[in-house]
Fold this sequence. Notes:
Aspartate Aminotransferase, domain 1; Aspartate Aminotransferase, domain 2; 2 domains; seven-stranded mixed beta sheet; four-stranded antiparallel beta sheet
Amino acid sequence: xPDSSQLxxxxxxxxxxxxxxxxxxELEREYGISDIIKLASNENPLGPGxxxxxxxxxxxxxxxLYPDGGGFVLKQALARKYGWAIExxxxxxxxxxxxxxxxxxxxxxxxxxxxxxxxxxVYPIAVQATGATARxxxxxxxxxxxxxxxxxxxxxxxxxxxxxxxxxxxPNNPTGTWVESAPLKRFIAGLPATTLVVMDEAxxxxxxxxxxxxxxxxxxxxxxxxxxxxxxxAYGLAGLRVGYALASPAIAGMLNRVRQAFNVNxxxxxxxxxxLDDSDHLQKSVALNLSGLKQLEEGVDQLGLxxxxxxxxxxxxxxxxxxASVYESMLRQGVIVRPVGNYQLPSHLRITVGTPExxxxxxxxxxxxx
Length: 370
């Protein structure tokens, strides 16, 4: 029989698929254990707030109908929040969906995209699927104060007349690192008008620093800027998959041409709209994360392990040994974290911030595993 996989596009045949964090149900099946905690996928341990939960319940009565394909109510709420034209908003099935749309709309086999080493794993997948060429800038070295972070100068040196998209995650997943406002703005200003810069700000709500760059405020200044954000993290709606992009109406118009019809379901639309208005839950989530991140940092320091600076809801640590065995030992204790060997970090684990009790249990399991 012929190998039907050979019928796929060459760029797809060699593509390494995205590997998510291990689900709780899978660990239960494999090891027959219960009382499992998952700190692997950067989810909000509080889940959605009361307003979002009420909106979910109300919207469930209409799931026999197609959702609003244009997502008007949510777009209107986002337009009010950012003071941005509704025509410049694109909704996605999570911000991952929007990142893929950007690649589909603007990349071809004749173009290039630039991103940093250790940047979010969706960038290489989205770029390669289009047949475009990826240019990967070396990250800052281990001895740098922002070790493994984006080196904007190194990224700028890779930009040329074929560069159509530059991806910048701020804060970055899986490292937790970030770039400051002044150098970031200079970097964007220095890009050619023919190069789009995508600011992936999935974790920005967790940043409690008024000096941290909010690139949505620069949209009027840079017509080649796209800002992507999500409701999966601080808003606690990871299971509903809803994200969005802010850009010029011209760019959003192109994204909406490749956007799949009804790509955001009705329950997600209702929950996200309600979540935007629930500032109390967002503040509670941010406060829990700040205290939890400090708890993890202190615990990791006591274990004598290296950790990296983080502005997200997770912490990257170096186990100083192959992380696979540490990860496996923690699994057997009912604690799921995230090995990041797929990022060429074979001795590292990424740990999501949980509740105080979950954090304590994770640290105990990590100590046992070591």
